[in-house]
């Protein structure tokens, strides 16, 4: 039975939420140029006089706007803030964080560019008049958080006036996702749509759209009873009615929700917390299907249902129970498919196709690389798994493909896709693997929380990271430092440390101090260290103390580095923690650039590795790539490609390749090659004998300096995100952040340390 999952979704404090939105550049998105803007020539092309040429071309043929402007991949998220989430009418400006949030989810999940527009009027005509003229700017319009019944009028009029998709997500997104869940719930309980009896509680934006879609899918209108605050919407009712409710009024003797539910198969809740009672659930048919989707609190909790029935299939809108019906499963992918065929609208066929594709995905076996998105529990189609989770990486290929196909078949695609297999591949390439990798890391740590030492516990960003670590239910955060200094600094920064899961340890006062000193002395006595040197290090140096904690099992991992440079911190740690037997300690950086992720090694440890060491680094990096969920394709990089031009440094890399050949390793690798050949399929095609099946996703650098210089340049000049270097190959999990690391970097590294601490 569906119960709240332990170590469920992250809980965040109000302070964290505000800091998240305020940090760096306020808000959640920025505009980035996709063309160079560096030279006079660039400016002449981008703006006057060059820009006049596409202007004329578009004036002659409007479809050219898709070739020369952002229109084809750009969606506006538009609201007037009259029904912000479940918070009510708080106005256009207050809705901006939600709309910015949707804009970035579009990008994150489906690589759709998006911008939020908040329109400050509650008058439907004014709103329509404002939005109707925006068509030239966008490929689609996502209306959001506009209250019923105005939302129906607004959407209907804009659909008539505009030749691009206009889609109110609170209506249709909800309808599509709940339809997908329902298709599967019916299948599991052996029901037929035509004869299934459904009661929908809530006759607003979501409720009305849901039952309209259900009817379009095959439910019999006479089997669906709609209820609102006044009870059943029956034919002849006059109180609290409007034309949208009237359209679904049925002939029935039932007047209350309780009466309507007697013997019903399905309850769809799109109303309010607590609207469904256990008594009503008791009266439903065998194997009842209960979707209690009110947010944030459902109409009835899964626990309440479980108390009285064991045969129910239960879904909610929340992430902390199985079967989450959430619109993020839909809108990015639905628009992706619609944009890719330049659809004029999102019609019922496309909605139904999305719902069916979503439903089908839940019935498929979950492959390894997807199982991780499910917190390591490989879900199996059944009552507790009727719908995929938002982080399921298969969604990006499955849903847009289905939507695009339906658009073509129903005649609303202006640019049909001829090669659908190729389209499916292009869709998969859009997925951002590191985001799902980090999510997987967080999810697993949540299931197996770990004690992580935050060695520089007196630093403000470290304290914030520790709080975030605990709030995200990743485990216990141990702050090393002087109790009074930590508390004073925390007070000054407004950080609340007084919570379960945060421990403060003062090395000098710790009862383990003597044991750690003995341990360090044992290891260092023949390396020129006196006992008193070791005592001083344990008392004064937090890295040494932290490393002893981990070495002797008092903690699971360490994160450090904000007050020491990388190599000093690593030297401190290496006095106490060795390499894993048979492994080499290396640094791997994860580089995310334009939706692409590559791992780069060795970015931390070996200054000028010899051929044997380069081969070891390659093996270590390939193993790490697999642990992160990538099938490695390694390029052994040099300034030359397959012998040209010749030089001693390239020969070393060639030798490393021969060593890997002899070792008969079980991953793809080749080299030596230059970075452009490794990363660019066209450049690679000039070498038909190459053994890589595609562009490399792991780059093995010939030396530390090239690794360090290139990753830092990518970060500073290329706008790439670089995570790491992550330390790989140590016997205990330790991660060292950079001197200027932010709290979010520190938490990521703490989570990675916890993840590599294993089960
Ligand atoms: N899980 C998901 O993905 C989503 C969930 N929702 C949830 O659905 C609910 C409704 O949202 P939305 O349609 O946008 O809101 P609207 O304001 O448009 O509609 C609300 C409807 O619910 C009815 N209602 C409210 N309280 C009760 C009650 N106690 N018993 C019966 N009916 C009630 C109202 O009745 P009346 O007409 O008489 O006022 C109205 O018909 C919210 O809780 C929202 O969180 C919404 C979108 C997505
Ligand atoms: C989920 C959503 O869109 C809402 O609650 O409004
Ligand atoms: Mg909404």
TrEMBL record:
Cofactor: Mn(2+); Mg(2+)
Annotated keywords: Metal-binding, Multifunctional enzyme, NADP, Oxidoreductase
Residue span(s) of domain Malic enzyme NAD-binding: 171-408
Residues annotated as binding NADP(+): 84-91
Highest taxon above the source species: Bacteria
A GO term for molecular function: malic enzyme activity
Domain Malic enzyme N-terminal, residue spans: 26-159
UniProt-annotated binding residues for a divalent metal cation: 144-145, 170, 295
Active site: 102
UniProt-listed GO biological process terms: malate metabolic process
Gene3D superfamilies per UniProt: 3.40.50.10950, Isocitrate/Isopropylmalate dehydrogenase-like, Malic enzyme, N-terminal domain, NAD(P)-binding Rossmann-like Domain
The family this protein is said to belong to: In the N-terminal section; belongs to the malic enzymes family. In the C-terminal section; belongs to the phosphate acetyltransferase and butyryltransferase family.
Assembly and binders: Homooctamer.
Name under which the protein is recorded: NADP-dependent malic enzyme
Natural source organism: Mesorhizobium waimense
Lineage, highest ranks first: Bacteria, Pseudomonadati, Pseudomonadota, Alphaproteobacteria, Hyphomicrobiales
């Amino acid at each position: 039975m569906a119960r709240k999952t332990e170590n469920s979704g992250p809980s965040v404090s109000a302070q964290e939420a505000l800091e998240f939105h305020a940090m760096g550049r306020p808000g959640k998105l920025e505009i980035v140029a996709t063309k160079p803007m560096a030279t006079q020539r660039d400016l002449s092309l981008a703006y006057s006089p060059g820009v006049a040429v596409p202007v004329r071309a578009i004036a002659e043929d409007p479809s050219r706007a898709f070739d020369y402007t952002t229109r084809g991949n750009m969606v506006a998220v538009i609201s007037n803030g009259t029904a912000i989430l479940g918070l009510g009418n708080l106005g256009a400006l207050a809705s901006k964080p939600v709309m910015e949030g949707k804009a970035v989810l579009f990008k994150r999940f489906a690589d759709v560019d998006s911008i939020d527009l908040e329109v400050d009027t509650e008058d439907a005509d004014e709103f329509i008049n404002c939005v109707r003229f925006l068509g030239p700017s966008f490929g689609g319009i996502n209306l959001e958080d506009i209250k019923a019944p105005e939302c129906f009028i607004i959407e209907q009029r804009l659909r008539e006036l505009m030749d691009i998709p206009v889609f109110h997500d609170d209506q249709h997104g909800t309808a599509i996702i709940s339809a997908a869940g329902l298709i599967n719930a019916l299948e599991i309980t052996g029901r037929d749509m035509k004869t299934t009896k459904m009661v929908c509680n809530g006759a607003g934006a979501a409720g009305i759209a849901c039952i309209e879609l259900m009817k379009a899918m095959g439910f019999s209108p006479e089997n669906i009873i709609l209820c609102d605050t006044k009870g059943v919407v029956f034919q002849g009712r006059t109180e609290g009615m409007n034309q949208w409710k009237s359209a679904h009024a049925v002939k029935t003797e039932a007047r209350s929700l309780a009466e309507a539910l007697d013997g019903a198969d399905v309850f769809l809740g799109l109303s309010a917390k607590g609207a469904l009672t256990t008594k009503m659930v008791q009266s439903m048919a065998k194997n009842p299907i209960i979707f209690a989707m009110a947010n944030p609190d459902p109409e009835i909790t899964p626990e309440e249902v479980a108390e009285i029935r064991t045969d129910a299939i239960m879904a909610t809108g929340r992430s902390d129970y199985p079967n989450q019906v959430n619109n993020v499963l839909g809108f990015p992918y639905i628009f992706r498919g619609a944009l890719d065929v330049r659809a004029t609208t999102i019609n019922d066929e496309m909605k139904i196709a999305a719902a069916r594709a979503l439903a089908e995905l839940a019935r498929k076996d979950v492959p390894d690389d997807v199982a991780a998105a499910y917190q390591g529990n490989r879900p199996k189609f059944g009552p507790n798994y009727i719908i995929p989770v938002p982080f399921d990486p298969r969604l990006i290929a499955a849903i847009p493909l289905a939507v695009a196909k339906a658009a073509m078949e129903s005649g609303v695609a202006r640019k049909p896709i001829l090669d659908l297999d190729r389209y499916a591949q292009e869709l998969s390439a859009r997925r951002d693997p590191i985001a799902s990798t980090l999510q997987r890391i967080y999810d697993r740590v949540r299931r197996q929380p770990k004690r992580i030492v935050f060695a520089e516990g007196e630093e403000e960003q470290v304290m914030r990271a520790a709080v975030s670590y605990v709030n995200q239910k990743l485990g216990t955060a141990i702050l090393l430092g002087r109790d009074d200094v930590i508390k004073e600094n925390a007070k000054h920064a407004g950080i609340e440390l007084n919570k379960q899961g945060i421990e403060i340890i003062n090395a000098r006062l710790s009862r383990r101090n003597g044991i750690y000193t003995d341990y360090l002395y044992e290891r260092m006595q023949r390396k020129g260290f006196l006992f008193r040197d070791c005592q001083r290090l344990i008392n004064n140096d937090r890295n040494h103390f932290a490393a002893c904690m981990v070495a002797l099992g008092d903690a699971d991992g360490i994160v450090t580095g904000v007050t020491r440079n990388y190599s000093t911190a690593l030297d401190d740690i290496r006095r106490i923690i060795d390499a894993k037997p048979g492994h080499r300690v290396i640094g791997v950086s994860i580089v995310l650039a334009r939706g692409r992720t590559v791992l780069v090694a060795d970015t931390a440890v070996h200054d000028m590795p010899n051929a044997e060491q380069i081969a070891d680094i390659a093996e270590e990096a390939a193993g790490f790539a697999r642990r992160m969920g990538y099938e490695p394709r390694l390029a052994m990089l040099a300034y030359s490609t397959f012998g040209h031009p010749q030089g001693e440094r390239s020969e070393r890399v060639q030798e490393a390749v021969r060593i890997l050949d002899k070792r008969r390793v079980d991953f793809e690798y080749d080299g030596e090659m230059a970075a452009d050949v490794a990363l660019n399929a066209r450049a690679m095609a000039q070498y038909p004998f190459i053994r890589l099946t595609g562009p490399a996703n792991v780059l093995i650098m010939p030396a530390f300096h090239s690794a360090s210089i290139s990753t830092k340049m990518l970060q500073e000049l290329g706008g790439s995100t670089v995570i790491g270097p992550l330390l790989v190959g140590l016997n205990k999990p330790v991660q060292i952040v950079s001197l200027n690391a932010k709290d979010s970097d520190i938490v990521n590294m703490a989570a990675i340390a916890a993840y590599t601490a294993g089960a």
